[in-house]
Every structure is written in structure tokens, then in C-alpha cells.
Amino acid sequence: MLELLIYQFWTIKYYDNAVDAQTRMIQQLDHSMTVIYEKWGSDTEKLFSVQDGLVQDLAGGLHFNVPSDLLIMNANGQILYTSNDRINGSSSIESEVNARAPESGNFTIKENKRKMLVIYQKNPVTGLRSISITEVAAIYENNAYLKKWMTYLILLSTVFSVFSIVLISLHVAAPIRSLRKQINAIDDGEFKNTSDQVVIIKDEIWEIGISFQKIMLKLQEQINLQFQLKMATNQSKFKALQSQINPHFLHNTLETINSLAIIHEVPLIAQISRSLSKMFRYNTVQDAEDVLLKEELDHVDHYLKVQLIRFDGWIECEQRIDPQILEHRTIKFILQPIVENCFTHAFNHVTDKGMIRIEGTLEQDHILIRVNDNGTGMPEDKIQSMNEALRAYDSKPEHADDARVSDSIGVYNVNYRLKIAYGEAYGLQYENISPRGLSVRIKIPVNQS
């Protein structure tokens, strides 16, 4: 399209230049005749007599760029000179020139089915009119070379345009095909990292591919985290039940012991067997990954009933739970391992009565559960080391040499599962209590059922 516009522009320009050149030639002839007229006086018949040859000399000195015929007419419309006898008496051109009022100008007219360009100039001194007649087709014949080169240019531009379209199409389609391959691979269960591929141009398609790659990696990470959470939960279940050959059999046996204890009026045995039975039921019957907090607290209550009977009043337990958090959900087995550590380690070297306090509060954007004891506590360097391991997702710390740390694998398991389930912002943290004791902070998200 651009080439056609350029060709049209140059064709019009070439035509206008030809008209200007012809006009200047006529003006030059008219000026020459004015000089001669002023020298010879008003004897126009002698001046323009064919025998004298003055007009022939003037006309012969003109060199038109395009083959043209020349006419000289007097004020009465009589032709005094013509360079082509065939146009002598051409009434259409003569009448058209005589009919035009302006002293100079140009127009086109059809003569014998040919389009002719007529340029005329009236001399105000001599009263004569100089007229050039040029066939329009002859003007464009000299412009044929431009048409030829424009044809070549259009062909070359067409080839270049087709090549550019193909190249751009390949450039646009290649990333789309690569993106589609990634989608098909994910549909088949394959996750491939293509971030190391060579990128020629970073355009919108590249940005879409990068965003898709990030989504794919996050999806893969979530799948891995869910798998690890499943494995950690199963491991926790296994550790809780590893001493049971047949959980259902043990559950039924404990119910039988509970019944016998009631019959024989032994309430402590009845309470222990009933609590153990409910603990086994919580471990074996509920297959859900998450439970209500009140269910998790009930499970700890049953555990505490067994342990407190065992310690015969030497250790007491107190709970301060905000009722608002009871209907929120959490993963299973997050409290028992921490409370169990209190019985195992907190009161080994304490002669006073032990106290375990469980507190649960609803904060602005999370739930905070504290398990506090008034035991011996831990050295600050051990607490710092333990908290660093907890922040680092360490489920099996190898660097812990303290007995209370190295035996607390269940605590690290709880922290590991919380972070996998809810993110790095959640989990466990240890701190000493003044003047004596240890506090374990459990942070879980607000997730109401």
C-alpha cells in the first residue's frame, strides 16, 4: 500500500513538473516575441510571415522535454504559425483557447480519442497567444522507468512482508507451543522446570510463561507439603499406636475393665480404663487430618486423668480456655506430646507440688495455646538452640544433646506438621517462666469450621 501511494505521489509530481516545464518554454517564446515586436514595430504580418523565418527560428530554438506541437494565434483566433499542419484548423482546441478569459493557463481536452494537454500564454504587448499541445500519454511514457522500479519495489516488499509475517508467527507461536507442552506435561502428572531455557525476546508471552512456571512450582510445592504432612501425621499415629497389637481389641478390653471396676466399686480403675478407651478411640476411629480444638482438648483431658491418678495428687492441672476457640479446627495430636514432656522432664528434681496450666486465647489473627509448668525449666542456650531448630522445620534434630531436647521428638514432629499445614508463621516456641518453669507456645491460624 505504501509503495502504491509513493508511486501515485511521484506520478502526480512528474506530471506537474512536465506542465511547469512546458509553461516555462511558452513563457520564454512569448518573451522573445515581445522583444522582437518592440524592435520591429507593429508590422506583425511581416514579423510573422512564414517566408521571413523569424517564427521558425524562435520555435526551432525551443526544446520541449516531451514531444509537443506549437501554435501561435493572433487576437482574432487566426493561426499564424503551427509546427504540425495536421492540427491546423483544429476547431475544438482553437475554440477552447478563445473561450478562456485568463491570459494564461492550461487544460486537458480529448482530440481524436486522445487526451491532450493544452498550455497557452497571451502576450499583452503583441496580443498573440502561444499554445503548446502535448499528448498526456507521451508525458507518462517518460515516467515508465519509475513504474518499472516501483513494480520491482512492490515485489520486493511483498516478499519481505511475507518473510516477516512467517518469522513473527514462528516467534509468537513457539512460546505458545512450549507453554502448551508444559500444560500437557502437568496433565500427565509431570512437573518440569523450564526456567533455564534460553529466551530471545522477553515479551508478553514470556511473562505468561514465567507466571505459569511460578504457579506450577507453587503447586508442586503444595503437593510435596501435603505429602509430607500425610507422612508426618501417619508417623505420629504410628508412634501413638505402636504398642498396640490390635487397637480395637484393646479398646474393647478397656471397656470390659471399666465395667468390672464399676461392678466391684473401684472408681480409679474405672476412670483410668474409660480415659484410655477414649484415647484409643480418638487415635483409631477418627481418620480426619484435622479436628475441632475442643476434641483435641478432650483427648488431652483423658490423658491427664490417667497421668494425674498415677502421680496421686503430686501434680495438678489447670485449664483456662477461651470458649471462642473451641469450634476452630486444627491438625490432630498437637497437645499430648507437649503435655507428656511435662510429666517426663519438668518435675524430676522438684520437691514442691507440680502444676501444669493449659491456656488458650483468641488473638487478632491467630490462636495461641500455652502449656506452662512450674518445673526446673531449661538453660537459655538450650532454649535458643531448640527454638532455632523449631524455626528450621527440623523434625529430627541431630545437634540436641540435652536429655530433655533429644527425647522430645514428638514436639519436633508437632512443630513440623504445623508448619507444613499452615506455613512458617505457625508452630512451637519455648521460653522460660519467672521465677521457675517452662512455657511452650503453640500458634495456629484462625480456621473456624
Which series of helices and strands comes N to C? HHHEEHEEEHHHHHEHEEHEEHHHEE
Number of strands: 12
What is the average per-residue confidence, as pLDDT, rounded to a whole number?
Answer: 76
N-to-C CA distance: 68 Å
**DSSP summary: helix tally:** 14
The neighbouring-strand order within the major sheet is 2-1-5-4-3
Largest sheet: 5 strands, antiparallel
Could you list some keywords that capture this structure?
single chain, 449 residues, 5-stranded antiparallel beta sheet, 5-stranded mixed beta sheet, 14 helices, 12 strands, 54% helix, 17% strand
Can you give me a brief rundown of this structure?
The protein is 54% helix and 17% strand. The protein has helices spanning 2-40, 44-47, 54-60, 91-99, 136-141, 144-187, 204-241, 247-263, 267-284, 293-311, 336-346, 380-391, 403-406, 409-422; strands spanning 68-73, 79-82, 104-111, 114-122, 129-135, 290-292, 315-321, 329-331, 354-362, 366-373, 427-432, 438-445.
Can you tell me about this structure?
By secondary structure, the chain is of the alpha+beta class. It is 54% helix and 17% strand. The strands form three sheets. It has a five-stranded antiparallel β-sheet, with helices on both faces. Helix 9 (267-284) runs antiparallel to helix 10.
Topology:
Layout: H1 2-40, H2 44-47, H3 54-60, E1 68-73, E2 79-82, H4 91-99, E3 104-111, E4 114-122, E5 129-135, H5 136-141, H6 144-187, H7 204-241, H8 247-263, H9 267-284, E6 290-292, H10 293-311, E7 315-321, E8 329-331, H11 336-346, E9 354-362, E10 366-373, H12 380-391, H13 403-406, H14 409-422, E11 427-432, E12 438-445
Parallel strand pairs: 7-9
Antiparallel strand pairs: 1-2, 1-5, 3-4, 4-5, 6-8, 9-10, 10-12, 11-12
Helix pairs in contact: 1-6, 6-7, 7-14, 8-9, 9-10
